[in-house]
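Worked example 2:
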Amino acid sequence: MVSIRKLTHNQVRYSLLPVLALALVHFVAYRKLPFEEGYEFPLATFGSVLLICIACCEINSFSYNRLKERWSIKLAPVATMLKQLATSLILTTFVFAVMVYSLNYLFFGQVTPFSRFVSSLFVALLIILVETLVFIVRDLKRANDHTEEPSIMTKDWVYKSGNKTLKVPKGAIAYVYSQNGLVYIVTTEGEKQLTQFNSINELSDANDTSDFFRLNRQFLVSSGAVSAIEKEVNQKLKVSLQPAIPSMPVEAIVSRYNSPEFKKWAQSS
């Protein structure tokens, strides 16, 4: 028998969504229970409600993980929580409205009554609110757990690469590159290592990156990794990196908004 504690977040979510969809169908949409006279299981309604629930949760999860790249819950926990919650609720309202009205019209040829839409939306927002809070609590716990480990937050970086757990001096890290949910570390010796992290923010929560600079969503660099800086249009900067790795970009663009801060960092490093 599988322990509940060993279930992943997605396994728990996909187990609960059909139950939530059944509750929504019987108490909000169909408004009949199995023991009532004239009851027939509303298969089409259940299918459409389940589809909407899955879509809202998946889009919310995708949005949360994407925005986690920009907003660090470790550096600004309150602001990050408020931004993530507001984004989740606004995005869910939009997705829910589009899907409810379009599916109801396509499947049943009618427009959802506004009162029923509002009550259904309220339940959907509660579900998304709980899911987003679970994400936030999980990330806060990870950040706090890593902060309490002195060996991680001092001179050495600790991370997994394949089946190995590596402990590398911070000075031996040239830069970090992230793409499609994969985070790579490039050492000063030119070695490329795939880590267990899903984002640069997650890596920063686990290791001391105070001497590094976040060029953009994809690159976190040390001062020694910057080989050249060139001016681009619209006050952007093009930064050349070393050591060069054949399968990775060797240049990164710094936006006009981050350029002044990057120049100060580069001059002081």
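The chain has two domains: 4-147, 156-268. Residues 4-147 form one domain.
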